[in-house]
């Protein structure tokens, strides 16, 4: 979720961009595994873009930083799809329930910058006074585990991090952060790493990209609608119906320090206060 040219999803700005989880870098490209026509049809039926879908060990990466498991692709939506405008705050049908609730977060096998980045993201959420709060633990069972993976550039981008959506009233259980040198460099910036983790936590608790209806708003290039099917794209009352340039859930951002803007806070408080 940046732009360091950077983006949270796909970009077309300069020769080096990032997505909420990705950064454009065409050196040493990895060829992605092919995705079957059947799976692409499931992804489309669930309302997601089938552009640049990548197979991973855990499922399929869509929109550059959202993980869909095979089980989720087979789920049927239980809530109606609601849509009002093309750019505003959106959530999925599924949210975290049983509030108030403390979500335990563990950083597993990652360096100091990722630990400090997790603490930064957690502190930002906890300052909002929501009924969902976060606590980093070092032992015991976590609700969300932040762990590493190492993957070089693919398709002109490098994934910075990824996560999925809530299920059964619980947050998505895993955030993956890229340890490849092409992602954050040899000396990762804590605020940059923390901003990506903050974005991925947003997915874990049910937030979609703010500009899901037109990713070109933050990513440049041609208009791309990410879709609104199986997990839903439900607009949140009180958030803008026009472009919102600094949201922490924009598909593409600037690769640096990005936290909640005023409308992000409205959205989170509507859902979790």
UniProtKB/TrEMBL annotation:
Family matches, as Pfam families: Peptidase_M57 (PF12388)
Record keywords: Hydrolase, Metalloprotease, Protease
InterPro entries: MetalloPept_cat_dom_sf (IPR024079), Peptidase_M10/M27/M57 (IPR024653)
Record flagged with keyword Metal-binding: no
GO molecular function: metallopeptidase activity
UniProt keyword annotation of Protease present: yes
Protein name: Zinc-dependent metalloprotease
Organism: Chitinophaga nivalis
